[in-house]
Amino acid sequence: MLHKVQGYVRTLTYLSSDDLDIPPRSKTAIREKRVMRVSVRGRNFTFFKGRDRDYFIVRRFLCTCKDFEFNVVLRRRRPACYHLVATEIAERMGTVRELRLRTDEFYDIVYELILDGKSNTLRKLLLRRR
User: H-helix or E-strand containing 42?
Assistant: First the structure.
């Protein structure tokens, strides 16, 4: 358990610094505006739209991708996945897409992420609100 906590602290420290090494995949994700903040009944949640999967993000702390789970937390090969780096930079630059959702839309997104790893509801909403 302590090993996992140390991995999270390392991620938080790394993403809080001004000296981030930005992977090319993060730069592409920022340019394509794949980081989004979803507001539901006054609460904000962050999602990352991947190419094939979508991820739930807790800023500077957690990503639901397998890379974060294995290479950041368990193996400690790197301080953060590219989704977290892209989210941090997009937040700093103010380029996060904003969506206001109804509660049922939000529940649909979370349900789809848990079951399928991606949300068709989220993708449809993004297309509709361009």
Answer: none
Give me the sign of the Cα torsion angle 2, 72, 36, 100: negative
Q: Distance between CA 55 and CA 117 in Å, rounded?
A: 8
- Per residue in 46-71, pLDDT (tens digit) is 999 998 999 999 988 899 999 999 99
What angle separates helix 103-116 from helix 120-128, to the nearest 10 degrees? 130
Distance CA 4, CA 109 (A): 28
- Residue 127, φ and ψ in degrees, nearest 5: -65, -40
Q: Tell me the pLDDT tens digit for each residue of 62-100.
A: 999 999 999 998 888 988 999 999 999 999 899 999 999
d(CA 126, CA 130): 6
